[in-house]
Write a structure and sequence with these properties.
about 425 residues
């Protein structure tokens, strides 16, 4: 592993265990509505319920594997009728009541390796559940940020339409007074119509985002709504240093590592087939020619003894099983290494995005201030009759574009912050997030 990220931060290899993450990491955004929505993920999200069911199935598989540690006991009550022994005539009836037990002595570790594999798969399933929960939480947070950005842009275009309407009225009045041309009015009408169109398109985007959030929290879109609020959630500071142990909170890495352990145990199961199976078996029961008097002492029988079985020739089946298990292990190792590499890449990307989007936001703020000043100058000159309507329209359009870009950048910074927390396993140190250190 590299000693540091290219962007920043000291790192070390993860231990391959599911560490406890911050269960409410989204609270750093300081939005009560988002907090309330996130809580509903565990209650009603159907993808999360499916992952939880898979985890319960993995728990059952562990119990199934552990059952091989104990003897199997069975009871039988039989009654059979058949021909008499050779040389005798007629038929005979045999009734029997028996209790039998069998236990495999795990000399070569076949059962132990099977239990290890099941337990590792159980741990991987638990990590899959944690990954599904974290992914859904992050998707909800990002979708909510996009919804609030749409609210802010809708509010922007509402105010813009009002301003453009006033400018159109001013231009029409100037036309009536003979100090403006029909071209000036047409340009103002075009600008107003374009703004109205964009406002309607934003309403459509908001509706789809609201429907997506409804699905994430397990609600019918028709019965779900979020009140409009033209304010983005608070932007937490991005830590300048991230401890390497954060990668241990990545549930996808934990799941991949546990699958390596499960595949390794399967090699042991396959290799155990080369050795004989030692079983201890016993039986106890009663056998007689009729049910009457079946449970009497003379009809009692019992048996107890070991059985050693070894396959002498299998046409290469055991060798193939070991080769297949080894290949499965190699595949799991490659998947684990790829998960680690992807994690490093994603954190590098997030750190770069946080740094560069902050710079972009500063540059956009300067551009917006200049565009607003330019629009004010153009409007004043137009009212004084020393500038054309085209100059005003151009300045207004530039200010609208700069404002919309500023909202978009703020939304992207918030989404990048959510993604950083997700890729760090949902457990950024809260003190570092608040202080930026």
């Amino acid at each position: 592993m590299p000693a540091t990220f290219k962007e920043t931060g000291q790192w070390q290899p993860a231990e391959g265990r599911l560490a406890s993450a911050n269960e409410a990491w989204w609270q750093v955004f300081g939005d009560a509505t988002l907090d309330a929505l996130e809580v509903q993920i565990d209650i009603s999200n159907q993808n999360l319920k499916a992952a939880e069911a898979q985890y319960r199935a993995a728990l059952a598989s562990v119990q199934t594997a552990r059952s091989a540690y104990f003897p199997g006991v069975s009871a039988a009550l039989t009654s059979s009728r058949g021909s008499a022994a050779s040389g005798a005539s007629g038929t005979t009836t045999t009734d029997a009541l028996s209790l039998s037990a069998s236990w495999e002595v795990d000399v070569w570790g076949r059962v132990r390796r099977g239990v290890e594999s099941a337990e590792a798969k159980r741990d991987a399933s638990a990590a899959d559940l944690a990954a599904a929960r974290l992914s859904t939480q992050a998707l909800l947070a990002q979708t909510y940020v996009q919804l609030r950005a749409a609210d802010e842009q809708i509010d922007l275009y509402r105010r813009t339409v009002e301003a453009y309407t006033r400018f159109l009225e001013l231009t029409r009045n100037r036309l009536a007074a003979g100090v403006a041309s029909p071209l000036d009015v047409a340009q103002a009408e075009t600008q107003l119509g374009s703004a109205e169109t964009q406002a309607i398109d934003l309403e459509n985007q908001r509706a789809q985002l609201e429907h997506a959030i409804a699905t994430l929290v397990g609600k019918m879109p028709a019965a779900f709504s979020i009140a409009t609020d033209a304010r983005l959630p608070s932007l937490p500071h991005t830590p300048s240093l991230l401890p390497s142990t954060l990668l241990e909170n990545r549930p996808d890495i934990v799941a991949a590592e546990r699958r390596v352990a499960a595949a390794n145990a399967q090699i042991g199961v396959a290799q155990a087939a080369y050795f004989p199976v030692l079983d201890l078996t016993g039986g106890l029961g009663y056998r007689a020619g009729a049910f009457a008097g079946l449970l009497s002492a003379p009809n009692r029988f019992w048996s107890l003894g070991p059985a050693l079985a070894l396959s002498l020739f299998d046409g290469g089946a055991r060798s193939a099983a070991v080769s297949g298990a080894t290949a499965g292990y190699d595949q799991a190792v490659a998947a684990y290494r790829q998960a680690v590499l992807t994690a490093f890449q994603e954190v590098e990307d997030n750190l770069a995005s946080a740094r560069l989007l902050a710079q972009e936001s500063d540059a956009q703020a300067r551009a917006l201030a200049a565009a607003r000043h330019s629009r004010e100058i153009a409007e004043n000159q137009y009212k004084a009759g020393i500038a054309s309507a085209l100059n005003v329209v151009s300045a207004q359009t530039a200010e609208l574009s700069a404002t919309a870009n500023a909202v978009s950048i703020a939304s992207r910074r918030l989404q990048a912050s959510v993604q950083l927390m997700k890729n760090a396993g949902g457990a950024l140190p809260q003190a570092a997030v608040k202080s930026g250190e």
